[in-house]
C-alpha cells in the first residue's frame, strides 16, 4: 500500500511540476508581450532585408536571361505573405492591446496574452524563413531557344542545292573563315537553304544557332532584340550601344555559335549590333544572305560566298508536282501542267505560288492559267518578271475581293505578322461579312490565312498565332496594291504619288512603317475615301493637330507608341478600330467621343486611369488593356456600360478590383459588373483574391478565359501551354469553391 501511495504521490508531484511550468510559460507570454512584439518586428526587418537581397539577385538573373529556381519563387511569395499579412496583423493587434478594460482601470490582459503568443509564434516562423533564404544560387541558365532541330519546311534535297549546301558546310568548318555569304535573286531559296544548314550544324559544328531577319529597312535595335530573344537575354537598357555590349558579353559565353543574318540589302555594322567575330570570339561565325553579291563582298567583307541559282528543268518539275498534286501526271493534264511549270522559269517562289493555286484544278483552269501567264508582266513590276507574273496570277485567282484585300493587309503588316492584328484590321474595315461575333470573325480570318498558306502566298511563322511572307511575294503584292487598290506603303523611298495631290486624294489606305523618310506630314489632309491609316512611331515625325480633321471616312487608325493624340482625332466619327498600343499618353478622355468604335487596343500603354468617358462607347466589342502596368483606376460602371462588349483583355496589370461597396462608394470597378455583359465570351484577367470572382455563373457564357489568381509569375508557363480556358491559382491561396469558381473549374482545359 505504501508503494502505491508513493507512486501516486510521484505522479501528482510531476503533474504539479508540469502544471506550474506551463503556468509560468503562459505568465511569461503576458509579462513579456512587449518584448515578443519587438522581437518580431526586429526579425521582420531582417527578413525584409533578406528578401530585398534575394530579389536583387533574382532581378539581375532575369536581366541576364536566366530562369529562377522554383524554391526561390516560393520563398519570395511566402515572405511577402508573412510580412504583408501576418506581421502586419500582429502590428494592428498591438494597438488593441494598448487599450484597457474595466472602464480603463486596468490593462486588457487577455488581449496582451494572445498578442504575445502570436508574436512569439510568428517570430519563430520568420526565423525559419530567414534560415531557408540562405540560397547558394537563385537561378540557372536557360537552354538557348535558337532554332528547332526539325527538318526545314520547304527544303528539297535537289542536287543543285546539295552541292551548295556541302560547300557552305565545309566553309563553316574552316577556322580561318568567320564570315560567309549566300547570294541569289529573290525567291530563289536562300532562306530555306540557310535554315537547313542551321538545322544540320546545330549540336554538331555549333552548340547554338541564332537566326535574325534584317530586311530592306535596316533596324539595328530590332536585330539586337531578335538575337537577345533567342539567347534568352532581356534588355533594360534603351541605348543600342549598351545593348551591343550586353550581346557581346552573352555571345562570348557560347563556345561555338553561328549567327545567321538573313535578307541583307545593305551593309550592316556588325560591331554596332554586338556580334563578336575574329579575335574577339573565334568560336562565333556569321552566315549572311543577300540578293546582291556586292553587299556581301564589299559591304560585309565576306571571306567566302556562294551563289544559289535556278532549279534545272527536272528539279523544277519535281517541285511543281509536289505542290500541285499527283493529278498533274494524268494524261490530259500533264502537257498543260508542264507548260505552266516552264513559265515559272525554275524559280521556287513562282513554282510554289502557281502550283499551289492550281492544285486539284480542272483542265480548263490549267489552260486559262497558261494563257494568262504567257502575257507580258506588268510594266509596274521590275526585276523578276517570271515571279511577279506568277504572283500576280495567283493573286487574281483568289476567290473574292475581301480575300484579296485581306492578303494585301498581310503584306502591309509584314514579316511574322500577328493573325490577331490582321483580324482586328479586317473587322474594322468590314472585310469579314456574314459573321455576327468577334469569335466568328477570328475563325474566318484564320481560315483565310490557312488558305493563303496553302496557296504559298503566305508562309508559316514560328507559331500558329503568326504568319510570314516572302519578300518577293510582298513586293509584288504591294505593287498590285498601289496600282489597283489605291494603297500606299512607304518603306524606303518617297514615291511620286506623295507630292501628287490628286493621286493622294484617291488613296484608300496609307501605311508608314518608316515615317522618318518623310520630312514632315501635311498640316491637314483631305482624303475623302481613306479608310486605313497606320504610322509607326518615330520621334522625328510630328502629327499636326488638324491632321485628321477632314478624313471622316477613316475606319482603322493604328498609331503605336505615340506620346500625344492630335486634337482632330475626335473628327473620326466613323472610326471602328483604334490601336494605340504602347501609347505614352496618360489622358485619353478624347477617345470617348469616338462613338462608332468597335475595337479599342490600349495594350502596354501608360494610362493610369480609364476615363469614365469610355462608357460612351456603347458599340465597343473588343477592349484590350493587356500590360497596362500603370493602370490603377477603372471607375465603377464603366465596364458594365459597354453592353456589346464580347472580348476583354486585362491580363498582367490591373488587380485593384473591388468586392462590393467601400465607404458607401466604390472607387474602382468590380468583377460583378461583368454579369451585365451578356455578350462577353472572352475574358483575360488577373485578380488578387479568388473571392473576387462573382458568385453568379457568368463564366458559363465564356468560350475563352484566362483567370490568374495572385501575383505568381506564370507568364512563361502560359506561353508553353496554350489553352482556351485557364484558371491559375497560387497554392497558398485559401480556396472556397463557390458557384463562380466551380463553374470556372468545371470548364477548364487541362494542359500538361
TrEMBL record:
The keyword ATP-binding applies. GO terms for molecular function: ADP binding; ATP binding. It comes from the Eukaryota. Pfam families: LRR_14, NB-ARC. GO terms for biological process: defense response. SUPFAM superfamilies: L domain-like (SSF52058), P-loop containing nucleoside triphosphate hydrolases (SSF52540). Residues 176-310 form the AAA+ ATPase domain. Keywords: ATP-binding, Nucleotide-binding, Plant defense, Repeat. Belongs to the disease resistance NB-LRR family. This is AAA+ ATPase domain-containing protein. It comes from Gossypium mustelinum. The lineage of its organism: Eukaryota, Viridiplantae, Streptophyta, Embryophyta, Tracheophyta.
